[in-house]
Amino acid sequence: MEERHVIVTYRLDRATIQELCAQLEPDQMSAIRHPTGIPPLVQVLSVLHFLASGSFQTTVAIESGMSQPMFSNVLSRVLSVLLKYMRRYIVFPQVEDLPTVKGDFYSLGHIPNIISSIDGTHVALVPPAGGDSRYPNLSLLLTPVRNPRTRAEECYNKEHGRTRRVIERTFGLLKARFRCLHMTGGFLYYSPKKMCQIIVACCMLHNLALRRQVPFLQEDGPEGGLVAAVEPVDSEEEDIDNRNNIIHQYFQ
């Protein structure tokens, strides 16, 4: 199989797939050894293909040389093993990293002391909307001004959107890379626990692809599928004052 076809099929290149399997401890790889003798590598590849393609289990199972019930079992086994290594692939900035993070965000929209961008996206079941006006404005969370009345508020909203675009692009690329997350019409018919496992596994593998600089190869470009902005919930007066202080100090 050519390298390009490997990436399109599994979203990881051959070397990264080998590294992923090597990083899984031998005892964990043994845990997914199927009684029928399906090698662990084949099981990992079948799950990668399932996450990447968004195909039905039956389709992936046939392509992988197993029955649908067998693949369902394989999916559960592989996800359980992958999630044991979540903290290896999903890492939040440490305290010593925050000045750099704040500087990177400030260069986007000139809003001070930003350390993350929050948003929501639909995956089968409707999750809470995030990162827009639906969240209350808290001292630790800045939201857009509803119905801006001054030029400063308009400028703040514009730069807030520019800063927030980071998470929009992230969701777009994540869902384009792993098409199982993009099927918003109810494709993932699983329990909430299993759906969370699938989503976390996709995030882990996405970070691994970025870390290894695996090129993004597929016909369709990234699509966001983001939650539309909705009416904001009420904010505390003190939190609104905090946002107003930032607007007056940085956007007047």
TrEMBL record:
Its main location: nucleus. Residues 131-207 form the DDE Tnp4 domain. Pfam families: DDE_Tnp_4. It comes from the Eukaryota. It is found in: Nucleus. It comes from Pleurodeles waltl. GO terms for molecular function: hydrolase activity; metal ion binding; nuclease activity. The keyword Iron-sulfur does not apply. Its cofactor is a divalent metal cation. Keywords: Hydrolase, Metal-binding, Nuclease, Nucleus. InterPro entries: HARBI1-like, HARBI1_dom. GO terms for cellular component: nucleus. Belongs to the HARBI1 family. This is DDE Tnp4 domain-containing protein.
